[in-house]
Amino acid sequence: MMLFAISKDNTGPRVDHAALFENLMRKSHRQAYSLAYRLTGNSAEAEDLVQESFVRAFRFFAKYDPAMPFTSWLYRIMTNAHIDSMRRKGKLKTMSLEQGGADGNTTWEVPDIDSSPDRMLLHDSLDEPVQLALNAMTPEFRMAVLLADVEGMAYEEIADVMHTSVGTVRSRIHRGRKQIRKHLLKHAPQAYRSYSDEL
Amino acid sequence: MNCKSAQTYLSAYLDGELSGQESLQMRDHLSQCRECQVEEIQLRTLKQMLRGLPLYEPTEGFEDRLVSQVMGAGERKRRFTLTFGPSLRLAGGLAAVAIIAGFGLVKLTERKVPMTRPQPTARLDSADFEFTRDQLFMAGNDPLSGNRFVVPTSYGHK
User: Fold this and answer.
1) Contact between chains at A29 and B66 (C-beta distance less than 8 A)
2) Subunit contact A6:B48, Cβ cutoff 8 A
């Protein structure tokens, strides 16, 4: 009797709830995948990250505030999922995020992704060096730069997604861009300079 | 605005994230500082490059796989909760009641454990030893017969 009562109370709204979520997921999964690819650097991990993010989002969908764009809410979840994943795999550096040279010239070791099965997907021009530069950054810097430059989000929105202050976002974006530029000048100077000359 | 402040706020300036006053100060500084102008051009170029990065597409069939896995995971969790949730709560409640009742019962029926070793209730001249003595006699182990006589230790002391 008790089982029936619970089932009856939850079936109606749940169906709409699930259908609404599925609709949002179908609309946003491509964009989420592209961001996840930039965050992880390969297709397999990107798919895993997208799936994990949507599973978490579905679990907490009842708490979703429609005043916030769904993708922003999803990216917030994805940020946490990505950091959790890197922590599990031991890829996350234990250095403080704001640590490093005050001039933003902190250098990070570049991981070797030559063995990645998705390497062929990367272009020979600047796409590969940029992805390598992104891979070399801490997840917080990488996320801030990607949300600003690839997703075109405002600093306040990024701060909301990343649960931090606008000042921290501004610092991460600025220092993140300088790290990318430094990496490109070191590892792909010709491609970078020829791109700059074209502009 | 000096060069240090200008370079710290350049990215925010390029992103249109400075206030009107700060933007005017930045523009004023850039018009006078060649070094910051170069920095501004380089960061602008980089920003344009990042904005032009191609979007990656998921593999064939990813959307359906994703929907199936995500909704399937949610449905499994929901079904488990609906099916076993009340039962698990009920079982948990019953188990707790049983444990408390059992504990109470043990407390009620528990006896005081004697602190000293219990003394044997049989006395040496009790019926048991009388019987043993008779058995020995019947078996021919009579001390007067000269046969080997086995005397129980306790009886011997008697």
Assistant:
1) yes
2) no
Reduce the secondary structure of A136-171 to three states and give it as a string: HCCHHHHHHHHHHHHCCCCHHHHHHHHCCCHHHHHH
DSSP state of B57: P
Domains along chain A with CATH numbers: 1-92 (1.10.1740.10), 100-199 (1.10.10.10)
CA distance A106 to chain B (A): 15
Asked if the Cβ–Cβ distance from B63 to A34 is below 8 Å, we say: no
Query: Comparing C-alpha atoms, which of A72, A48, A57, A41 is closest to residue A151?
Result: A72
- The residue type found at B62 is F
Q: Which of A9, A174, A199 to mutate to test binding with chain B, by most B CBs within 10 Å of its CB?
A: A174
Interface pTM (ipTM) of the complex? 0.71
pLDDT digits (tens, 9 = 90+) for A118-137: 433 334 577 888 999 999 98
Greatest mean pLDDT among A67-81, A102-116, B96-110: A67-81
Contact A170, A156 (CB under 8 A): no
Neighbouring CB atoms inside 10 A of A159's CB total 19
Is the overall model pTM greater than 0.80, yes or no?
no
Domain residue ranges in chain B? 3-51, 127-157
CB A78 within 8 A of CB A49: yes
In a 13 Å sphere around the CA of B61, the CA atoms on its Cβ side amount to: 3
Type of residue found at A157: E
* Residue found under tokens 């006589």: B149
Interface of B with A (CB under 8 A): 8-12, 15, 17, 42-43, 45-51, 53-59, 62-63, 66-67, 69-71, 73-75, 77-78, 82-83, 85-87
- Please indicate whether, in this complex, the C-beta atoms of A130 and B53 are within 8 angstroms of each other: yes
